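User
Take a look at the entry that follows and flag anything odd:
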Amino acid sequence: SGGCNQPKRQQTDDVPLHEPRFSVSCSKIAGMQALAPSRAIVRRLAGPPEVTVRLSYDPPLVVEWSRVLLDTVSVPPLPAPILLVQTGGKPVAYRARGSGTAGVSMPGLVTLLPKRVPSDVVLRGVGEGALVFFENERRVPGWVARLAPGEPVTAVDELVLALVRQSLDAARSGSSEPGYLAALGQLLLMQA
């Protein structure tokens, strides 16, 4: 279908609470086999995602969905900002390390995790969410590059939530046309 690889099942015996995983790739990047640093950090903390989809707009985005069981996690400073789109589970409390201000994200909310800000995340249970990464952390839109490091910011954004869910649904169903995914990426960048 439009040059995309079909979804592939991956073994999940080593990770509890996870359903079969699917991964869809609609374009290959020559020589890019290692994960971007922010994705690698998140995978070390939360494990591999259940669904991954690449939105091949310029710059490309990667959306990864996971269901995790966590108590408290200390997140080191990330080299690039990421979006957390919470799709289900318990509310998540977070605080930039050294800050007196705590925030809360709940299902349906979008949280921008800024670069270079260490933070602590408290879930104490099962949570579901998608993380939106810039595939190449050196090529981010100007408005993202100008964001000053600071506190994570959480807001209601039904459009971002819907766009992320549509991209994940396309990946799960195997009907991920590259043009459709690129359009979702463009809309996501414009809205976020």
Notes: Residues 59 and 140 are 6 Å apart (CA to CA). Residues 1-33 have pLDDT under 50 and may be disordered. The chain has four helices and nine strands. Residues 158-173 form the longest helix (16 residues).
